[in-house]
What does this fold into?
Amino acid sequence: MKENKCEVKTERFNLENHKLYILQGVVPKGYEVEARLGGVRLQINTFEWNNASVFDTQNDKKITVEVQLPDLLPKKEKLELKVVKNRKSLPWFSISTKKLSKKAVEVPYYIEDENVNFEQKTCNIKGWAVDTSKVKILLIDQKGVSIRFKFHRMRRPDVVSVYNEYSVSPACGFYIEIDHVSGKKYTLIFQSKTRRSEYQVILSRRGILIKKIWKYYRRGSYYLKTHGICAVFHKILKNVKAKRKGILQYQKWLSKHLPDRAELNKQKNERFSYMPKFSVVVPLYKTPKVFLKELIRSMHNQTYSNWELCLSDGSGSQSPLKGFLEKICRKETRIKYARSVTPLKISDNMNKAIDIATGDFIVFADHDDVLTKHALYECARLINEHRDAEMIYSDEDKISMNGHNLFQPHFKPDFNIDLLCSMNYICHLCVVKKELQQKVGKLRQAFDGAQDYDFILRCVEKTKSIYHIPKILYHWRNHDDSTSKNPKSKLYAFEAGQRAIQAYYNRNRIMAKVVKGEYLGLYRTKYLLDSKPFISIIIPNKDHIEDLKRCIDSIELKSDYENYEYIIVENHSTKESTFNFYKKLEKENAKVKVIYYQGNEKFNYSAINNFAITYAKGEYLWLLNNDTEMINKDCIEELVGYCTRDDVGVVGGRLYYENDTIQHAGVVIGFGGVAGHCFLQHPRGSVGYCCRIISAQDYSAVTAACMMVKRKVFEAVHGLSEELEVAFNDIDFCMKVRKKGKLIVYNPYAELYHYESQSRGLEDTLEKQKRFRREIEIFVKRWSDILQNGDPYYNPNLTLDSQDFSLKRL
It folds into this structure.
């Protein structure tokens, strides 16, 4: 298959100098770039990128070319760049001067994601725009009439790093939400002081189809040009065989997963050996009666009858709800309410509802939300199955203002403390045993806006009996000013959330600082190291000294962490240049120690690493592939920070392929029938399902391509299993660590490139395929329970057929 050795990845004008055109891409090694305008050769500057290895392979290099354009561009000519070696030349890039002149006065922007929902009549757009002055974003319809939309700024350090000639605003990213879309298209306008760009937002099905066809045509043409007709044929055949049925609509899925009438009747007649009483506590504040009636109706529709609805009206002496509440309390003895002469804030209001609760369990609900008919039944059933249950939460979705549409389901993992410290993923439905509530106290006014978040964090400190019901039991109302829809409407709530997590760390004497994450409602934990423990970086290597050098150089040049050693495990290299490089490396870097693995020449990753640990002096072990490249300077601190916690055994990072797509963002047991990486090949910058890519969290496993582990934990599980020579040894290792009661943490803020399988090649021989099948059999036999019952950090309603966390097929 022909490689893409000659390709431009990005091309743009310099923000400050409009006579300087910048191109970045890949060229074959040994070739030089020439630029001509109308046949006249232009002056250029060429240099390799600082992170040139991003697209590096054995035969090509990544370069930046700066083309000096004339003051006046000639008309009807072309700027052409070629790569030249001796008398041979290859086309690299071409653009007409007409297009070039147009680009010079346009705001640089990029649309990364565009989604039109025809049922909801909404459109969401994600991207970025930069200039030397503030970029305003407008939206107009085909008649030029301005369209209102919700706008969220996002920090984009990746974009800032590209436009390094100017101090670009870090908040140059955007996320746009458009409601009530109509017509065939809108125009998105990017306007700065001196430049303007327009982007056509296609809203019709036919227009979107044509746009997609054109996109695929361009991709196909390029693939044909670079790979040939045979490769195109095989790719088409493969896609036809693997063709999916299309995106599964959530409402259609939900209708198949809610209990039918027969099941609901059966639930109504069921009597458990223990019939706990549920107190559903709800704060009211001038609640619209239409919503309150829906909530009450959802309570009356419960198939489980042992409940009480405890309402607290914090509207004050002039409450518009007084008469209505008195009337419903006379009609239904299970409904009661407390009133206040003075208006109450949210925590005090909820606490009044808790004060009148007499149930065995407290159920938290908002005044305008809705419980599903089987919500309390499912809670009662779980309590009867797990009598130790002290805290229960369920999956949830959102409900439209008119109550007709259900959307944005949140299918959650089982209890996940590090995800909880990244976001309040528990939220609704939340049920707490009365004794636990009394132990931790009531809601605290100091955390109003995130009072439930603070309460949940205090609860999880006091109990280990936390259970998750993987079913939609709660519909969260989607208001225009709700934090569930428009995060910026309640900034104080997110600041309170930050303080709630910080308070949790402070109470538990965890040295950490909480900062806001990439989006409102997300949080990032930075661990404060009072000392920097000694780390042994274990890197197996067989020849491939270019890979090894790149790996070590990225650490040496970027990291400020100094207390470490390298253990380079030489594994039967054959090239003399490799051994010369080892000598040079040890001579120039006192931290490097090369050891020689004398075991079987057949590659055994587990045995090689187990051998290396016997030479390591570190309190922490960083297992690292030689074909990785560290990206962020605080990568080591990010890994070791989590690893210093007593409850953590292993920490992994976010890894990218060389084309800036996700290679690793955690591992789920069951993907592909055995185990697989999450969000594989999602573009860099993607957030994933419910922001899981960019949130620190616990998983069942992480890849050993980048794995930090406590030495005492490594030794406690007797290292890597050597019968798993190549595949699944890291997953098996993590499973053994989990069995010891330690957490496996994925930290997205430890970022690396991973040029996967460059060291040992692919599974392309009969012997390797037999070995792979044997290792699958070993893993499946050893961990059959989790394969049968499901990964606790993955929701059973999500598919195992792909790694994007999409809905399981009907």
About this structure: The first strand starts at residue 7 and ends at 13. Confidence is low (pLDDT under 50) at residues 50-58, 241-247, 480-489, 758-762.
